[in-house]
C-alpha cells in the first residue's frame, strides 16, 4: 500500500522520523511481523524498533534525469516485496530533489493496513510531525485497544451458533457457483497468474453522477448498489454468463473502539446475481439490493475461512469464488488532502500500479 508525496518547503527530517517512530509505537500493527510455524501464521509484535528513512540525494542530477530517477524509485517501491517474517512491514524513503523540494515514499504491507487505516495514518502522522516541530505533545486520543485485542475477540466471538449461521447462509448462497467468469481476453489464461497488470483511469461527467444519485434515491438504494448493478449488466453482456459472482471489500469496523486503529480489518464479500437478460434494469437493481443487504448481515466471517469451508475447486490460474472485484471508495483516497504538514505544500505523486490481484478490478 504505497504513498508517494511531493513536499515543497522547509522539511525537518528529524521531526519526520520522530513522527514515524511515535506512530509505530502507538499502533502495534505497524511493528508486527507475520511468522509461520508448520503452515500456521501468527503475529509477533516487536519492541519499539528504530525507524530510519532511507535518504537518496538526487539534487545534483539534471532535471530530466532527476524526474526519471524519481519515477524509477517510485516504481521500485511499488514492485519491491516484503519479507513478512523478518522485515518491518512499513518502510520509508526520502528523495532530496533540491533545497526545499523532496519526495517522500511510504510503503505499508496490506497485511497490517487497509484503506480506512490509510486515512488514520495520514491524519496522525501529520499531527505527530507538527507537534514535534512545535515542541509540544501531540493531540491524539488514547487507543482503547490494539489490533491483537480485536483479533482475539473476533476469534472468540466467531464460533458456535454465530459461526454456524454465517456459514449456513453463505453455503446456500454460493452453492454451485460457476468456476470461472469468462471475460473475452486477447490471450489464453496462463497456468499461474503473473499478477502483471495495468491501470486505466477515467472520469464520469457530473451530469451522469447526478443522474445515478437521483436514480439511487428514487429506488431507495445506495450509489454502490446502482453502480454494482450496472457493472453486472456489463459483465453479463461481455461474458454471456447468467450466473455472476463479484467480490467487493467491506470496512468491517462495526465498533467505535476500532475506528481509530491502523490494521487489516477489511473483509471481502462475494455478491451473486443471476440474470436472464429479460429483466429491466430496475429489476436487476432490486436483485442486487436484496443480495447486498443480506451479505451485510452476514459479513463477519473472514473470506479465507469461507473459501476453506465451501471446498471450492482450487486452481492456481484463478482466484477462488470470484475473479472480478468492484470497489466503491467512500473514504477520501487522495493523500494530499489528508496530509497537513506545517511549512510544507504536499502534493500526490502518481506511480503506475502494475500489480493486478484479480482478472479485473473496478474502483469507483
Identify the strand order in the major beta sheet. 4-5-6-1-10
Count every beta strand, where a strand is a DSSP E run of 2 or more residues.
Answer: 11
Helical run tally: 9
Structural class: alpha+beta
Detailed description of the structure:
With about 375 residues, the protein is of the alpha+beta class. It contains nine helices and eleven strands. The strands form four sheets. The chain has a five-stranded mixed beta sheet with strand order 4-5-6-1-10, covered by helices on one side. A two-stranded antiparallel ribbon has the order 2-3. Strands 7-8 form a two-stranded antiparallel sheet. Strand 5 and strand 6 form a beta hairpin. It is globular. About 20% of the residues are buried. About 0% of the residues have low confidence.
Write the layout of secondary structure elements.
Layout: E1 2-9, H1 13-26, E2 32-37, E3 40-45, E4 54-57, H2 63-79, E5 90-98, E6 101-108, H3 115-134, H4 147-157, H5 160-173, H6 206-218, H7 223-239, E7 243-250, E8 267-274, H8 281-297, H9 303-310, E9 324-327, E10 344-348, E11 360-363
Helix pairs in contact: 1-3, 6-7, 7-8
